[in-house]
């Protein structure tokens, strides 16, 4: 695109450093400037409207422009715009949201600790795992198992648990106490002639072998997303989570479940732990907790996890951790109202009711000559694109995502897939609108390659 001097795009390039981009490319091309949003749509500074097919960053459950959230934010700003939860102090919104989260948790939980992002929450959860091992007199039980293509954030510990090379390269990550097991994506890593059941058995064998190589007494926790979102919407094979939990119980390894993307209705249940019968010791939540209207995340922990940490804080005199914005009153007030909206409007039920249509349309598009296959659960899905024979990895998916943006739909290209995660308020008609546009984009890419 042509960037006019002194335009907002030019000022953006001049002054702002963006995340998750090739910075030199951004200096030349600039970015899309979004000015407003309403429902499932956002509008750029030229007036063009788009379906936000990724709900921002997998997160705007109730859609854009929800007045109840802005009104609650203003009311809380007027009453108590900021206070902290340090040093034996607290405030109403953080208490009320903690109570709600404990009441709706997929398994019995004991305590909630708030942070401001999924990265921060996963990072702190890792610190607490180590703190707890010390409290139990197990100073060697510190290693954490992540998974190849898993994503848990970009802070030092969370980025190390993450299994994506782009988040490690040139950052001197991962830390040496983080190890990674195989990615359980049957569509990508199943061998010729291997059944899904045999693939699951191999994945579980890889995990057991890793534990034995490292030493069970050195491994503290296993981290996993029920569905691997930022890795490309990678859905677990049948029997995978049942087998993982059995292995972890056998070796006394904690299970930390990252529902930053999956939580609060995305899979057609309030939590994906309910979809896949997962029983975590620690549950990490963010994104849809506040529909990302304000930065907020939460760590839920069961009593067996919490009690040794509390004992250790008494022994040494303090739990020596905290963020200025932990449990921020405006963020927690908005989070509480957001969850009330999700419940009152049965947005979890909407995801479940529309799953068949959503996944069915993706499956129809998987028959397109440019496409390879589709996958998903609830209102979370991906269309795998056939790689270009003469291109670099990811070029084909990037081309489809670019063509789709021209059609007025924003998605996310991840490796060889285009991923979709629309606001939970989407309707059947809007699903058709979104995927009709994707069909046109596939046709455009096919014509450009003819």
From TrEMBL:
Per its UniProt record, what Pfam families does this chain match? Answer: Aminotran_3
Read off the SUPFAM superfamilies from this record: PLP-dependent transferases
What GO MF annotations does this protein's record show?
adenosylmethionine-8-amino-7-oxononanoate transaminase activity; pyridoxal phosphate binding
Please give the biological process terms from Gene Ontology that the record holds.
Answer: biotin biosynthetic process; gamma-aminobutyric acid metabolic process
Entry keywords, A to Z? Aminotransferase, Pyridoxal phosphate, Transferase
Taxonomically, the superkingdom here is: Bacteria
InterPro entries attached to this UniProt entry: Aminotrans_3, Aminotrans_3_PPA_site, PyrdxlP-dep_Trfase, PyrdxlP-dep_Trfase_major, PyrdxlP-dep_Trfase_small
The protein's required cofactor(s) are namely: pyridoxal 5'-phosphate
Q: Which PANTHER family match?
A: ADENOSYLMETHIONINE-8-AMINO-7-OXONONANOATE AMINOTRANSFERASE
Q: Which NCBIfam families match?
A: PRK06105.1
Similarity section: Belongs to the class-III pyridoxal-phosphate-dependent aminotransferase family.
Its protein name is: Aspartate aminotransferase family protein
Q: What is the lineage of its organism?
A: Bacteria, Pseudomonadati, Pseudomonadota, Alphaproteobacteria, Hyphomicrobiales
